[in-house]
Write a structure and sequence with these properties.
Its main location: membrane. With 348 residues, the chain is mainly beta. It has five helices and 21 strands. A five-stranded mixed sheet has the order 1-16-13-10-21, with helices on one face. A hairpin with a 4-residue loop joins β2 and β3.
Amino acid sequence: GRIKKSPSSITNLSGSSGMASLSSVSGSLMSIYSADFGNVDVKGNIQLAIDYVEQLKELHIFICQCKDLAVADVKRQRSDPYVKTYLLPEKYKLGKRKTSVKKKTFNPVYNEILRYKIEKDLLKDQILNISVWHNDTFGRNSFLGEVELDLGTWDWDEKSNKQINWFPLKPRTSTMTLQLENRGEMKLALLYVPHPAGGKKTLPTGEVHIWVKECHDLPLLRGNRLNPFIKCTILPDTSRKSRQKTRTVAKTTNPIFNHTMVYDGFRPEDLKEACVELTVWDHNKLANHFLGGLRIGLGTGRSYGTTVDWMDSTSAETALWEKMMNSPNTWIEDTLPLRMLMVAKLTK
């Protein structure tokens, strides 16, 4: 179909107001991206017991405590941990169970029982996934480790199995739980135009065109309605003039946007330092809710010589950006999975 051009937002990235003047930007960005929510080094142990209570036909998971958890919020040197369980695969749709959140501690004590009502013989093809998370006020929770117990091989009559045991927390391995955290995907295309024609003369700096086509399988966070729209920012520029957004598509988890955004002022060297942040939101009268996003750039962890948390592209996101850089004047399309992001706040 025909591409609807949105008005080109002049960010003039190479000028004094844009990307090259990182000194003014980096202050605001450093404080915003203070915590890296996806990549905590897992450590520590969890103490728990599991039992099947025949009279109630319930699986009971007794969560006692954790010891020596990782620091989730590095800037504030704190973790606010809670424990979450799933029975996998989720074929009985029993959902998750959660403990309370313990504030400011790496050694939380819970002494809570999480319960599942399920016939005992159904447990033989289930895996119990127990994960520990840092609870963030803005909903961007960090994974602190997990334990998986294969209930198919579990000896329910063995006395020691009913007792409280310590288990080491492990990094995320379960593909099944990753799918449960699935946030859907975005189909998009990028185009780099090194020498755009501006009237009679050719412009000295290039443009990046971002064609947001559609999203698939967006998560329903509340109720059964979703009114999604997409915001775009080119980091490190968090000024309001760098922010563009699509219209809201009502009542769908598979919105079609077909919206193109144009950013100019790109010199070839700026492409190595910049990152396109696309975030998907559920439009709500009271507040917009973050659903997931992409960060498309080289993922080097640095921008204009400064270490930044937002230069954290996945290999698939980086591959798309590299293809765009290496194929000027050509649309490069891909469908990428949305993920949890620490979202940049706007500066004036």
